[in-house]
Amino acid sequence: MEELYKEEEFFRVEKGLSKKVVEAISSIKNEPEWMRKKRLQSLEIFFQKPMPSFGPDLSSLNFDEITYYVKPVQEKRRRWEDLPENIRETYEKLGIPEAEKKYLAGVVAQYQSEVVYASLKEQLENMGVIFVDMDTAVKEYPELVKEYFMTKCIPPTDNKFSALHGAVWSGGSFVYVPPGVHVPFPLQSYFRISSALVGQFEHTLIIADKGSFVHYVEGCTAPVYSEHSLHSAAVEIFVKEGARVRYTTIQNWSKNVYNLNTKRAIVEKDGVMEWVGGSMGSGVTMLYPASVLIGEGARAEHLNLTFAGKGQIKDTGSKVIHLAPNTSSVIISKSISKDGGKSIYRGLVKIVKGAKNSKVSVSCQSLILDESSKADTIPIMEIHEETATVTHEATAGKISEEKLFYLMSRGLSEQDAMALVVRGFIEPISKELPMEYAVELNRLVKLEMEGAIG
Fold first, then answer.
1. How far apart are CA 33 and CA 11, in angstroms?
2. What is the mean pLDDT of residues 193-220?
3. Domains in the chain: how many in total?
4. Looking at the domain assignment, is residue 199 inside a domain?
């Protein structure tokens, strides 16, 4: 392992992106040859693909200064008590033990590039549900992974960062729910970057077979460093006939993190895909969860909240592609801009010829809290079917002086009055979250309002 060096509790590969680094990652993981080849093919595509021609300026992102793989020295543990104390303290702050007790669910926790804690409850096993980290899935369920991993949903050719992800991905979750099985509690994952100039590239692959249901929840965090870090994950979701998947994420990366992800679902006949997201942190975010409705009667719901504070650019949105008749989608996007932050909604709705009677509703609402902040809406509608019904609403505004005056006349301070209005603004998103995540979202928004998140 001459490519590695030890630093405190971690092994790292050398900085920069090269064939040597990619092969080292594959070797460390003891991966099969087919995965190593897939990584190297993705690397070639990455070098050929241009940087995005839209959105925030990424010129300060130096790929040669990033470490693409950092592994905790400790092996993966199955019991919470077996984790080293410093890692336990990190995840206790995120509420993992409480969440696990509440739902009796499996929890996968990722620290740097590797999963360090994975617990799979007997109840899941008895239902036939597979919930493991991606490295385990590659070894124990190779045929399933081969069929679905970066093939039909997010191929490496999709964009420069999907190609980067395909080359250096590490960790993440694999979920398979058998036909007809309804998982009665959320499956949860937590991701944390704990070093500067580090990339984290977890891969989430969810397969919900016919008539099944699963709710997957992820939380993300990172401490503050002066140097930049990169988070470039991929989420692939396959919603089979009559199945339903809800994917919830609360992201609180620090402002030194570039958050550049690709998330997409393929939804078959009568399937339902629900995206619920809250993005509080990161200096630059580019994130556009997509639903591809390939089966008649398929549905998608996208609910998203972003908060852009000082020095933050949130370029986010939703994409829905209607490829079959009688499909429907609802997109609700809410953004808050404060202290010079910039929020951008960049969305795409496409209805192809033959996707008869498709229905789309898009609502973009922006709340601007001061004169120095901005909010833009860039919707793209490609409608090629005359029978489609499409509505689009976009509003941008400030908190009215009348509302503040009314609340302050009832004894609230200006800050408390503004916070109350903001809580009402985000309520359509927070009410869709499990209780403790709704509380956490409101807490993070409050901290952002107070400028307490670095």
1. 23
2. 81
3. 2
4. yes
Domain termination site, one of 249, 268, 287: 287
Indicate the length of the chain as a whole number: 454
Task: Give residues with Cβ within 8 angstroms of 387, minimum separation 6.
Answer: 356, 357, 358
Strand 203-208 relative to strand 172-177, pairing: parallel
111 lies in the same domain as 259: yes
Query: Which residue did the predictor score with more confidence, 103 or 22?
Result: 22
Q: End of a domain among 287, 312, 342?
A: 287
**DSSP E strand boundaries for 223-298:** 229-231, 234-239, 244-252, 257-260, 262-267, 272-279, 284-287, 290-293
DSSP string covering 209-235: -TT-EEEEEEEEE----SS-EEE--EE
* Assigned domain for 332 exists: no
Q: How confident is the model over 8-22, as a mean pLDDT?
A: 73
**Residue 433 forms part of a structural domain:** yes
CA angle 204, 210, 214 (to 5 degrees): 45
Residue type, 255: K
Q: Which domain holds residue 450?
A: 401-454
Predicted confidence (pLDDT) per residue in 240-295, tens digit:
999 999 998 877 777 778 889 999 999 999 999 999 988 777 788 999 999 999 99
Pick from 254, 199, 188, 243: nearest CA to 221: 254
Residue 342 is encoded by which pair of tokens?
């910039």
pLDDT tens digits along 156-190 = 999 999 999 999 998 888 999 999 999 988 887 76
SS3 state at 200: strand
Residue 94 resides in a domain: yes
Angle, vertex CA 316, rays to CA 183 and CA 354, nearest 5: 75
Residue 449 has pLDDT above 70, yes or no: no
Q: Which residue has the tokens 């109350």?
A: 420
Block residue for tokens 């089966």: 295
Beta bridge partners of residue 365, listed in sequence order: 334, 395
pLDDT(403) > 80: no
